Amino acid sequence: MVAPTPYIGLSDSHKSTMIAQTLGGNVLAKLPVVRKLGALRRSLARYRNRRETIALVPTMGALHAGHLALVRLAKRRAKRVVVSIFVNPAQFAPHEDFSTYPRTFAADLAALTALKVDLVWVPSAAEMYPEGFATKVIAGGPASTGLEDAFRPHFFGGVATVVAKLFSQVAPDIAIFGQKDYQQLKVITAMARDLDMPVKVIGAPTMREKDGLAMSSRNAYLSAAERAAAPTLHRILKESAAQIKAGKPIAATLTASRAAIERAGFEIDYLEARHAETLALVASVKDGPLRLLVAAKIGKTRLIDNIAV
Ligand code: AMP
To answer: Which of 168, 196, 212, 264 could form a disulfide with 232 if both were Cys (CB 3.0 to 4.6 A apart)?
Structure first.
């Protein structure tokens, strides 16, 4: 992939930078990179005036094939596709990896250019949270079910607030989120419904490496040995789902599965079977549809995954 080169002199009035990707000297496409809210609104107004539908794909960058699958789905579902890249400080606790989170902006732009995305929204932290910013969204329901929220208590407040802002900034007709972050998908869906946000939230399937490991920007943290052990998470999820489907009691299945995950070198935060929509506790398959959700650390890296039963 060829690194994008800045294209100077276009859309200055909109304070956007055009990125041109060249291959063999030919300009393939130009990708507007918008960093200011005023410029974003002007660009989007052009789409709206033409009655073109808009899809938003929110990301924190460090794009991989999972993100790009969301973009492809967005392209099938709307005329215009906006991808946001914002590493949101509000969803990281002080001890978490905000400062070291992978940032691969040039490669991200090259990938989005190749996919012919219409616009990339890249606000700075100061643009997103200007001096005096004081309003937060408190997510409930699926956000307080004792899964991610029990281990990252600040997380869904930060996510819900920034996604509410992105919805307000972009006013998309649809927004695409990955099932990889299953609880997040349910939290955003509930927020949009509860706050009457006129956006359709769509969940996209998890993209995996060949060995089953869910693609994640954080997989870059894994050492070779950790990377070799990491697919255990998905393998155990699959086996557990099959056993539960076949009638093995949930509690016994999960006890054995937790032990297997620990044997592979993980420290488990949770491995649970929950109601697939509400994420409420379940006692048996009769309480379904069910979803298995796991979060576990290997070395310093925390991985999450989930699967339908
Ligand atoms: P992130 O940049 O990690 O915040 O992710 C941005 C979006 O991409 C979220 O909606 C994620 O759920 C989604 N996503 C991340 N990894 C995957 C994956 N492996 N498959 C599908 N979607 C993903």
So the answer is: 264
Residues 111-148 have pLDDT tens digits of: 999 999 999 999 999 999 999 999 999 999 999 999 99
Percentages (nearest 5) of helix, strand, coil residues in the chain: 40, 25, 35
For residue 62, give the ligand 1 atom closest to its CA.
Answer: 2
Q: How far is the CA of 76 from the centre of ligand 1 (A)?
A: 18
Joined together, the tokens standing for residue 212 give 């089953």
Which among 215, 252, 251, 246 is positioned nearest to 233, based on CA atoms? 215
Write out pLDDT tens, residues 214-249: 999 889 999 999 999 999 999 999 999 999 999 999
Catalytic center residues: 67
Ligand 1 center–CA 66 separation, angstroms:
6
Structural domains of the chain ordered from first start: 17-204 (3.40.50.620), 217-308 (3.30.1300.10)
Q: Is the pLDDT of residue 7 over 60?
A: no
